């Protein structure tokens, strides 16, 4: 089944180019285009789509503001003539960020990322033991199995995700609040303003410290009571 796409851009020529490019992909179906950002935002609130091409700089609201306003956001590919919005695109977990004038080769790479991500996300062959999340790291979407996560550390605007299967943490631009929304509450808990741990990886709790296989993490004052409740489960 083709991915349902919407394109929003206040420049008619930019929309025509996206129409031309999308038409070359049998795996994409462009269901609507909008030159008005507000009309596009209203459509997205009432209709489910898989992929959104959206310009960053528009008169009424920016593409970044539009995406942030969506409760159920589709996959996002930002388009813009300016490089200085790359940070926001990473923060919003965009699939890609295309600079105008958009080259077809670059467009193809972005679309292929979206198609691959959609396949991963909607795979029906994964078992419960293969529950996963996807994060943007090193310029690509990375699949992380929940069973491999030991703990997550906040580093300002970034997170370090420590895995039992790797000596090197995965670095991603994301907030603690955002990653907690992705993680099952019965499998992960926050123990400190800077740390989230996998409950099944906790070996012991003693003197306000959580002991993991190879790490020891502090328990913050605001989380002490909750962690104490977990002692009987370890």
UniProtKB/TrEMBL annotation:
Residues with 4-aspartylphosphate modification: 55
Record's keyword terms, sorted: Phosphoprotein
Domain Response regulatory: start-end pairs: 4-115
PROSITE patterns for this protein: HTH_LYTTR (PS50930), RESPONSE_REGULATORY (PS50110)
Protein's UniProt keywords contain Phosphoprotein: yes
Organism superkingdom: Bacteria
Pfam families the UniProt entry points to: LytTR, Response_reg
Domain HTH LytTR-type: 133-205
PANTHER family: STAGE 0 SPORULATION PROTEIN A HOMOLOG, TRANSCRIPTIONAL REGULATOR-RELATED
Name under which the protein is recorded: Response regulator transcription factor
């Amino acid at each position: 089944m083709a991915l349902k796409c919407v394109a929003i851009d206040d420049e008619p020529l930019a929309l025509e180019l996206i129409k031309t490019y999308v038409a070359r992909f049998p795996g994409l179906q462009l269901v609507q285009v909008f030159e008005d950002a507000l009309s596009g935002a209203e459509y997205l609130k009432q209709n489910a789509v898989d992929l959104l091409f959206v310009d960053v700089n528009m008169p009424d609201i920016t593409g970044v503001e539009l995406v942030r306003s969506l409760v159920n956001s589709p996959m996002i590919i930002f388009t813009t003539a300016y490089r200085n919005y790359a940070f926001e695109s990473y923060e919003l977990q965009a699939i890609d960020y295309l600079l105008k004038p958009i080259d077809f080769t670059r467009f193809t790479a972005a679309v292929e990322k979206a198609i691959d991500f959609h396949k991963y996300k909607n795979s029906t062959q994964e078992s419960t033991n293969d529950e996963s999340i996807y994060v943007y790291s090193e310029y690509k979407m990375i699949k992380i199995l929940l069973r491999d996560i030991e703990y997550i550390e906040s580093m300002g605007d970034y997170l370090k995700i420590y895995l039992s299967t790797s000596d090197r943490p995965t670095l991603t631009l994301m907030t603690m609040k955002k990653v907690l929304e992705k993680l099952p509450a019965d499998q992960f808990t926050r123990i400190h303003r800077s740390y989230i741990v996998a409950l099944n990886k906790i070996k012991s709790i003693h003197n306000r410290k959580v002991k993991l296989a190879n790490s020891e993490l502090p328990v913050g004052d605001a989380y002490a009571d909750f962690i104490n409740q977990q002692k009987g489960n370890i």
